Amino acid sequence: KKKITSFKETRELTLLCYAENLLSDDEFLVLWENNQSSNPDFPWDSYGPFDLENIDEAECKAEFRVEKRDLPTLRELLWIPPTFKCPQRTICDGMEGLCMLLKRLAYPCRYSDMIARFGRPVPELCMITNRVMDFIYDAHGHRITQWNDTILNPRLLEQYATVITEKEQL
To answer: Is the pTM of this model over 0.85?
Structure first.
């Protein structure tokens, strides 16, 4: 089984070969320049893995906009599976994936902002978050794409708007 080498590993090997005089100056420069990532190199591996048990209530509410005690119920109601598997074989616990999506949706949040919490590189965070979002949409999308005439008809929508407006004026 072949392992795909990262830019970082290739650059480290290039430096080692150059230090051992296995590469000329020109060869070194060509290899060095051609093995640079256009993405920032975040130190994701210096952080530990996600552990919901070590997140206190206030942090949970601030980061995910959900009470910690409500996360298991939310997971159950959204039918979140035990694990998510991405096409490139990354595996993520279902609760971790749900928390990633919740954190990502808590504006403003970039994937790089999530590294310290989840201890994963940006590409994995992106793939997992998209996988969870796709799962939820596939499972529940019909709830927002199909008109529910019993509660969302024009007459009732007008009534809802009127009640809310009257409530705001009190």
So the answer is: no
